[in-house]
Automatic annotation (TrEMBL):
GO terms for molecular function: adenyl-nucleotide exchange factor activity; protein homodimerization activity; protein-folding chaperone binding; unfolded protein binding. The keyword Cytoplasm applies. One of its GO terms (biological process) is protein folding. This is Protein GrpE. SUPFAM superfamilies: Coiled-coil domain of nucleotide exchange factor GrpE (SSF58014), Head domain of nucleotide exchange factor GrpE (SSF51064). Keywords: Chaperone, Cytoplasm, Stress response. It comes from the Bacteria.
């Protein structure tokens, strides 16, 4: 009689275990879908921003070269630029800060190197060539920069000696 009871209890326990596993799988799937949906919402504007941000950068650059002759026009454009910047900030867009920073391959793209004999400047940004932007925590447009590269005086002398040797071709 005990064997019969064990056989009827075991399938019930087996079904209960299967149900608990299925329920846990469903809950995990629901959580994963919620995370993915939040991620999609968070970065849905990324493509649009990649198109708009170069226009914003060009507008900023044009204001740097504007003359002060038409002051009212200049003030109007500066106001529009400020509004543009505020809207971007509300949406989580930040400009990558490069000035005085060590080169960061995650937010910057090195376009060229500037040789320096000052070792403390090695791998620091020499100049920003175009602005970069992040959306939340992701880089959507890397900043294009020139980066200092340390070259020792001995290496510079050796390089000059090699450059001054005649070609033996």
């Amino acid at each position: 009689m005990d064997k019969k009871k064990d056989k009827t209890i075991n399938p019930a326990i087996d079904w209960q275990n299967k149900y608990q596993r299925a329920l846990a799988d469903y809950q995990n799937l629901s959580k994963q879908q919620a995370r993915e949906q939040l991620e999609l919402i968070k970065y849905a504007t990324s493509s649009l921003l990649q198109d708009l941000l170069p226009v914003y950068s060009h507008l900023k650059l044009s204001l740097q070269h504007a003359s002060a002759e038409d002051n009212s026009w200049l003030q109007g454009v500066q106001y529009v630029l400020k509004q543009f910047k505020d809207v971007l900030a509300v949406r989580g867009v930040q400009e990558v800060i490069t000035e005085g920073q060590v080169f960061n391959h995650q937010t910057m793209e090195a376009v060229n190197e500037v040789m320096t004999s000052n070792q403390s400047l090695d791998h620091q940004v020499a100049k920003e060539l175009s602005a970069g932007y992040t959306l939340q925590d992701r880089t959507i447009i890397p900043a294009k920069v020139s980066v200092y590269k340390y070259i020792s005086e001995q290496a510079e002398i050796d390089s000059n000696v090699v450059d001054s040797l005649p070609n033996n071709n």
